[in-house]
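Quick review question:
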């Protein structure tokens, strides 16, 4: 086990496998910035599946127990099942993936399950088509995502987590309908406070709906009570419906930062390591992997990177007079 400067162990790795996406969520990849002339990574610039797998194998020695595949949208990367299959062979890894749900056909879900994917998280910000379209900004319909969620459930990729980012001026009114819809489904709906990741989404504090307000809104109609975390460092605060019809999660990175337990390392599609979602630069692991660095050298580099880690951006957010220029969410994977 390796500890950082605040004694936080390295446990989770999030791997972005592409910086591309077929959505243009206004809080993540606004059209004005991610237009047709945007310069995405080429195939050779991205880590290959073999490079990713080698890296993950090495990090298991440093205590990594959980890997989340993300992006951009990870299902846009060709033959993602192939990567899943190789990662699933590594003993002791909890393997999961986050997607916008647009490409979750029956066949894709079965292929992912057969490859060894255990669970999946699907993002969905509203049940109202107009509201959803104004957030994804590509006219993608709610029914198609719901179909994707159903396909994932039928394939056994459960329990499914549903991520909903809340922006006050856009989908506040979608909170209660979403809670009612997913209450008895067995899926876990998680509300995410809108974050100031990247430089392009024009983030404003008054667009953030604090988790306490979300709990009040839902609790007024469907009584809730808090429940204990599943494990130390769980990102979401858990609440259950008092009638036993399920639970929700609240990810309060703005109103109640959880840097104190943050055990996540992030690997970008280009092969840079970020010790914080808000880091302004990453460590170039791709060069090591492509220049025949030994296993020991790579483990050493990651180990000392983690040991020197003192990130706690969200805890310092309110005290900062200026923002560093962080990387975009679609690049680092959320
Ligand atoms: N494309 C996939 C998806 O949307 O699920 C995976 C990548 S996406 C960057 C990962 C998660 O980050 C999604 O649940 C998304 O809603 C969330 N996200 C993106 N931008 C965000 C922001 N500014 N604040 C909070 N969450 C955000
Ligand atoms: Fe794409 Fe996910 Fe970002 Fe939306 S949140 S633009 S689906 S990467
Ligand atoms: Fe972890 Fe950085 Fe987020 Fe804090 S701000 S929880 S250190 S990723």
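Suggested answer, residue by residue:
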């Amino acid at each position: 086990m390796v500890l950082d400067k605040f004694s936080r162990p390295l446990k989770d790795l999030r791997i972005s496998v592409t910086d591309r996406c077929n959505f243009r969520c206004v809080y993540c990849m606004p059209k004005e910035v991610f237009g047709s002339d945007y310069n995405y990574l080429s195939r050779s610039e991205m880590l290959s599946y073999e490079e990713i797998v080698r890296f993950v194998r090495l990090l298991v020695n440093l205590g990594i127990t959980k890997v989340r595949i993300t992006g951009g949208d990870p299902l846009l990367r060709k033959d993602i099942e192939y990567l899943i299959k190789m990662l699933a062979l590594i003993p002791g890894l909890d393997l999961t993936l986050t997607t916008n749900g647009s490409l979750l056909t029956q066949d894709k879900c079965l292929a992912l399950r057969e490859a060894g994917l255990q669970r999946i998280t699907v993002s969905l910000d509203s049940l109202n088509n107009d509201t959803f379209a104004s957030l994804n900004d590509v006219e993608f319909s709610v029914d198609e995502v719901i179909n994707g969620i159903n396909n994932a459930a039928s394939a056994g990729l459960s329990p499914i987590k549903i991520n909903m980012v809340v922006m006050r001026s856009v989908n506040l009114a979608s909170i209660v309908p979403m809670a009612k819809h997913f209450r008895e489904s067995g899926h876990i709906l998680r509300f995410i406070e809108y974050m100031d990741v990247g430089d392009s989404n024009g983030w404003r504090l008054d667009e953030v709906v604090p988790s306490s307000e979300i709990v009040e809104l839902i609790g007024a109609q469907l009584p809730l009570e808090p429940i204990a975390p599943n494990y130390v460092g769980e990102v979401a605060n858990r609440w259950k419906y008092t009638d036993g019809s399920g639970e929700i999660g609240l990810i309060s990175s703005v109103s109640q930062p959880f840097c104190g337990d943050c055990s996540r390392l992030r690997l970008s599609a280009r092969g840079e390591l970020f010790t914080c979602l808000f880091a302004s630069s990453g460590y170039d692991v791709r060069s090591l992997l492509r220049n025949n660095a030994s296993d020991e050298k790579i483990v050493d580099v990651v180990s000392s990177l983690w040991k020197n880690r003192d990130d706690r951006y969200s805890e310092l957010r309110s005290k900062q007079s200026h923002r560093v220029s962080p990387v975009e969410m679609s690049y680092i994977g959320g």
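Why it works: The two ends are 24 Å apart (CA to CA). Residues 257-259, 262, 264, 276-278, 311-314 surround iron/sulfur cluster (ligand 3) (CB under 6 Å).
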